Amino acid sequence: MGPSAGKDDTVTEPGHGFPSVATSVRWQMMGLVTATALLTYLDRLNLSIAGKFIQDEFSIPLKTMGWILSAFLLSYSLSQVPGGYLSDRFGPRRVLITAITWWSLLTAATALAPRLFTTRWFGVAWSFALVRFLIGIGEAPSSPAYTKIVANWMGHRRRGLGSSFNLLGIGLGGALTPVLITFIMQRWGWRMAFYSCGLLGIVVALAWYFWATDQPNQHPRVNQQELELIAYERTEDRGVRGRISVPWWQIFTNRSVIALVLGYFCQGFPIYFFHTWLFIYLVRVRGFSLTQGGFYGAIPYLAIALAAPLGGQFSDFAVRKFGKRLGQRLAVWVGMFSSAILLWEGAHAGNKVTAILLLAAAAGFNMFAAVTFWAACIDLGQQYSGSVAGLMNTFGNLGGFFSPIVTAYVASAFGWTAALTLAAFVTVGSGLCWLVVDGTRGIGNHND
After folding, report:
1. CA–CA separation, 343 vs 308, rounded Å?
2. pLDDT confidence band for 134 (50 / 70 / 90)
């Protein structure tokens, strides 16, 4: 689940003079965040893997498939702010249990999309789009809720590392999805892949119900030593839950928040190429076989799984070394500018294996930087971090919404090299936005 107890996990009991080992529930909570993020990307990417089979079976054109892939992102992005607000108001645990159950049932229902009554009016393609739109509503609260969990459970010294567990789950989910979904589809058909994902989601929802709590002091297995390590302060549960008033005007007018969300829009555009078109790109453009596409399609997500924790640790180190303002900027710049260069090189590489390795490294560095975006939501939002995270992720996924559509049109008109080159330039824009972001000037500070 996380690092084992060690030097940082011992404190001296008052009056005794000998160390007492802290419990490790915070790492188990981070493990649950990782598992849930893995599930979200399993459910998010399964259609991009099954897309080839669905296109062939129902004769769905390339551009129409782009709209189906983007239907999820439209509702997901538009539901982020409500999802973040609900996490602030009702607590992340309750919100996650409801959300996971919702999207898991609808994921299973994807297999039934061609037989929905809506096919009589809109056709098969838009029935798929409708189901994906509803799944996006269900998944929307997940990332803001993770941010609340990190804020409550990891303390201010490990916000970068804590934020990386969400992205670690994305990497693991992305790495497993092509292999797992391809395996299931080849043996039992694409419909069984969606049924399996839905069942797994119900299991994860039960884990949140029986194991998780919103606050460390609510968990029966957390001891006082662990609370001291977290430097826990009970800032949220003060008898006002259900009547929380989010200072939206301060959020919308804060320059750092504005730059943060614009930067995350630019971050979402390139990364969603991997979430939507990568498998089809590898098979139809680069000439990999179906099995090879599943294997090589996992490599960018392995890079994400490795790079996200490194990005979190580097971000925390840079903040300690250079201060929050410069340290966070350096972490983002290293990640985003490296990602842009690698995207460019991967797009123009002649050898298909070299190309996917370069593109995989680009995905990894993108998420190396993304960790700091999520840590900044806590710094800027403070007790309203869920709402700020929801706003940021709205823009990130609006960038993701446009990504498969714009990529399809640019690729159709100018080729896939041009589409990936465009993604590289947008990545540079994400890094440049951090010239304005300052994590010390949050909504609670009036000097912005």
Report:
1. 18
2. very high
- The pLDDT of residue 13 is 44
- Torsion angle of alpha carbons 361, 299, 292, 270, nearest 10°? -60
Does position 294 have pLDDT exceeding 90, yes or no? no
Kindly tell me if the per-residue pLDDT of 275 is higher than 80: no
| Distance between CA atoms of residues 158 and 305, nearest Å | 18
DSSP string across 64-120: HHHHHHHHHHHHHHHTHHHHHHHHHHH-HHHHHHHHHHHHHHHHHHGGGGGGSTTHH
DSSP assignment of 148-178: HHHHHHS-GGGHHHHHHHHHHHHHHHHHHHH
Distances 439 to 25, 381, 442, 448 between C-alpha atoms, Å: 28, 10, 6, 11
Across 16-20, 98-102, 433-437, least confident range: 16-20
List the alpha helices (DSSP H) in 349-415.
Answer: 352-381, 385-414
Q: How many residues does the chain have?
A: 448
Classify the C-alpha dihedral 354-360-366-368 as positive or negative.
negative
- Alpha-carbon span 255 to 404, nearest angstrom: 29
Is the pLDDT reported for residue 320 higher than 70?
yes
- DSSP structure class, residue 232: -
Q: Taken in order 133, 185, 204, 277, is the CA torsion positive or negative?
A: negative
